[in-house]
C-alpha cells in the first residue's frame, strides 16, 4: 500500500507493455539484450529478463534457446496483454461492482426465458414506428436538468 | 427521553417502501439521487448514534480513556440501559468502521488494478480488448474509460454498439460511481440500508439506459442491445464473471425501455393512487431521516450541555 511500492507495481505494468511493444517492432526473434538496447539505457538487463519471464507466464511471448541465451517472440499484442490483466482483475475481485458499472449483470435461467420473450416482442413491433416510443419527452425534460 | 435515542439505528427500515416505490415510479435520475441522499443521511445518523452511545455508555467505566464528565448522571439518564447499550455499541462501531474501511480500500484497489491493466493502451477513451468473454465496463476517473471486449462488440449491430457506448458514457458523465460508492458505504454502516443499495444499483443502470435511449433516439435499440449483451454473457465460457449477480434486473430494464419513456422532471400527481403512494413514502422517508437526525443531534446536545468542554 505504500507509495513507492505502488509506483513500482505501476511501473512494472507499463514496462510489460513497453517490452511487448519492442518485441513486436523486431523483425524476428530477438534476445533480451536487444530489447534492453531498444528501450534505452536506464533499464537493467535483469529487469528486462524478469519482465520477459512474466510475459512468458502470461502466454503473450514465447522463447526458444539459441546458443547460450534465449530469443523471444511476441505471440500477442498490447491489447491482448491488457485483456489478460483485465480478466484476471474481474475474476479475482468480488467487490468490484462499486467501481466498475457493468453493462449487464448475469442472467438466471428464468430471466433468460423472460428476456427472450421481451426481445421477440420488441422485434415484432418492427423497427419503423419510432415515434410511438415517446422519446421526445425525455429529451426535453433531461436537457433542463443536466449539470 | 427514552428509547427514541435508538431510533437512528432502526429508522432505515422505513426506507424500504420508499426504495421500492421510487424504483418503480420515479424517473431513474430522481430516484438515484433521492435514494442516495436518504441512504447517506440515514447511515450518517446511525453511525453518529453508535458513536454517542459508546461515549455515554462507557466513559465512566474504569480504564476508559474518555473524560468521566462525558457520561455524567444526567447524560446517562437520557439513555435507557446505558451500560449495556454502550458496551454493545463498541463492537458495532468497530464493525462499521472495519467494513467501511474495507469497502474504501477495495474500491481504490479495483480502480488502481483496472487502470494498471489498461496501461500501454493509448489514446482513445474506449479500450477494445480482444477477449472471448463478452463484457463492458465504465471505469471512472479523469478521463474515464470505457472497456469493452471484441466478443461483446461482435454480437451487437452497429446501432446497438452506439447504444452500449452511450450507456457507458452516461455512467461516466453523471459520475454514477459516486452514488454507488455512497450507497455501498451506507449499506456497510447499517445493514438495514441494503435494499437502498440494491435499488440505487438498479436505478443508476436505468438512468444510463434512459440517457442512451435519448442519445440514440430509439428506445428499442437500447433494449435490444441490453438483451443481446445479457444473452451473450450468460452463454460466456467463464462462470466466474457471471456467478456474481444473484438477481436479474436485466429483463426489468429491457421491459422498461420497451415501455414509454418515464416523465422527466415531474413527480406523479398527488391525487392518483401511485402519486399518493410515492409522495407518502417520500414524506415518510424524509420524516424518518429528519427524526433520525433529530435523535442523533439531541443526544449530541445532551452530551454537550452536560460536559464542561
UniProtKB/TrEMBL annotation, chain A:
Its protein name is: BlaI/MecI/CopY family transcriptional regulator
Listed A to Z, the keywords are: DNA-binding, Transcription, Transcription regulation
Q: Which family does it belong to?
A: Belongs to the BlaI transcriptional regulatory family.
Residues annotated as region Disordered? Answer: 123-147
Compositionally biased intervals (Polar residues): 128-138
Q: Kindly list the organism's lineage.
A: Bacteria, Bacillati, Actinomycetota, Actinomycetes, Kitasatosporales
Give the matching Pfam families: Penicillinase_R (PF03965)
Amino acid at each position: 500500500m505504500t507509495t513507492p511500492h505502488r509506483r513500482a507495481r505501476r511501473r512494472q505494468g507499463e514496462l510489460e507493455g513497453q517490452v511487448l511493444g519492442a518485441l513486436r517492432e523486431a523483425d524476428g526473434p530477438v534476445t533480451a539484450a536487444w530489447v534492453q538496447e531498444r528501450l534505452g539505457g536506464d533499464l537493467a538487463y535483469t529487469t528486462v529478463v524478469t519482465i520477459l519471464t512474466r510475459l512468458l507466464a502470461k502466454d503473450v511471448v514465447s522463447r526458444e534457446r539459441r546458443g547460450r541465451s534465449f530469443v523471444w517472440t511476441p505471440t500477442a499484442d498490447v491489447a491482448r496483454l491488457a485483456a489478460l490483466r483485465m480478466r484476471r482483475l474481474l475474476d479475482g475481485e468480488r467487490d468490484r461492482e462499486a467501481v466498475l458499472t457493468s453493462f449487464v449483470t448475469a442472467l438466471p435461467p428464468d430471466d433468460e426465458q423472460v428476456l427472450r420473450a421481451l426481445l421477440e416482442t420488441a422485434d415484432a413491433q418492427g423497427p419503423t414506428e419510432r415515434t410511438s416510443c415517446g422519446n421526445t419527452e425525455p429529451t426535453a425534460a433531461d436537457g433542463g436538468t443536466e449539470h | 427521553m427514552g428509547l427514541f435515542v435508538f431510533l437512528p439505528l432502526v429508522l432505515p427500515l422505513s426506507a424500504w417502501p420508499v426504495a421500492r416505490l421510487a424504483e418503480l415510479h420515479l424517473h431513474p435520475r430522481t430516484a438515484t439521487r433521492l435514494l442516495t441522499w436518504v441512504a447517506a443521511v440515514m447511515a450518517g445518523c446511525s453511525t453518529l448514534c453508535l458513536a454517542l452511545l459508546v461515549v455515554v455508555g462507557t466513559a465512566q467505566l474504569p480504564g476508559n480513556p474518555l473524560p468521566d464528565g462525558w457520561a455524567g448522571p444526567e447524560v446517562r439518564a437520557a439513555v435507557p440501559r446505558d451500560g449495556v447499550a454502550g458496551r454493545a455499541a463498541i463492537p458495532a462501531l468497530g464493525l462499521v468502521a472495519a467494513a467501511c474501511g474495507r469497502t474504501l480500500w477495495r474500491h481504490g484497489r479495483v480502480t488502481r488494478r483496472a487502470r494498471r491493466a489498461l496501461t500501454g493502451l493509448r489514446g482513445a477513451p474506449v479500450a477494445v480488448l480482444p477477449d472471448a468473454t463478452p463484457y463492458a465496463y465504465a471505469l471512472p476517473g479523469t478521463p474515464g474509460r470505457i472497456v469493452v471486449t471484441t466478443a461483446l462488440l461482435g454480437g451487437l449491430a452497429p446501432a446497438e454498439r452506439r447504444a452500449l457506448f452511450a450507456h457507458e458514457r452516461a455512467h461516466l458523465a453523471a459520475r454514477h460511481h459516486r452514488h454507488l460508492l455512497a450507497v455501498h458505504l451506507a449499506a456497510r454502516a447499517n445493514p438495514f440500508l441494503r435494499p437502498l443499495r440494491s435499488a440505487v444499483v438498479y436505478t443508476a443502470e436505468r438512468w444510463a439506459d434512459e440517457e442512451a435511449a435519448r442519445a440514440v433516439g430509439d428506445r428499442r435499440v437500447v433494449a435490444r442491445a441490453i438483451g443481446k449483451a445479457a444473452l451473450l454473457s450468460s452463454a460466456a465460457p467463464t462462470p466466474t464473471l457471471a456467478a456474481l449477480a444473484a438477481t436479474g434486473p436485466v429483463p426489468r430494464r429491457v421491459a422498461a425501455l420497451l415501455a414509454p419513456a418515464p416523465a422527466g422532471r415531474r413527480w406523479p400527481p398527488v391525487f392518483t393512487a401511485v402519486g399518493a403512494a410515492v409522495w407518502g413514502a417520500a414524506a415518510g422517508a424524509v420524516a424518518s431521516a429528519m427524526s433520525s437526525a433529530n435523535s442523533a443531534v439531541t443526544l449530541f446536545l445532551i452530551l454537550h450541555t452536560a460536559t464542561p468542554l
